[in-house]
Amino acid sequence: MMRDGYVARWQGREYQASPDGDDIRLYQPEPGEGFEEVRAGRYVRVLPATEIEDLAYVRTTCTWKGQPFIVLGEHDAWLRVEYTGGRWPVAEAMRLEVFDFGVYQGWAPAAEVTDLREQRV
User: Fold this and answer.
1) Rounded distance, CA 42 to CA 63, Å?
2) Closest listed residue to residue 68, CA positions, set 53, 51, 86, 55
3) How do residues 25-57 score in pLDDT, each as one tens digit?
4) Three-state DSSP class for 100?
């Protein structure tokens, strides 16, 4: 599973999370005590940040064609990647899409991606 977002540990379990001021929103795919359904297969519980054991941002990184990327998502045998090398000529040569100023994204065949790892920041 490719992850890119906040995670929080509460009562020894890790959840997808979202900071919201002094609170942390915890998400899970199944019903649970204190969790409210926000849509099918998505439940949320809001807790004070002081009750959270750990909060971190997790992202998956990789190398594709010798260049550094963040993995944003996956579909079938493809990974949606964002170039982190910061060099326009490289991004242009790789035919990456200009997503925003200085932000270049594309679809990489998963079989061509190496050095896939999760980082906590």
Assistant:
1) 32
2) 86
3) 999 999 999 999 999 999 999 999 999 999 999
4) strand
Length of the chain: 121
Structural domain boundaries, residue 67: 58-120
63 and 93 within one domain: yes
Alpha-carbon dihedral sign for residues 90, 97, 77, 5: positive
* Pair 64, 74 in one domain: yes
Report how far residue 5's alpha carbon sits from residue 18's, in angstroms, rounded to the nearest whole number. 8
Neighbours of 48 (CB within 10 A): 9
Helix (H) or strand (E) holding 92: helix 88-93
Measured distance CA(27)–CA(108) in Å, rounded: 29
DSSP letter for 24, please. Answer: E
What is the percent of the chain with per-residue pLDDT over 70, rounded to a whole number? 99
Tell me phi and psi for residue 118, to 5 degrees: -100, 135
Can you tell me whether residue 121 is helix, strand or coil? coil
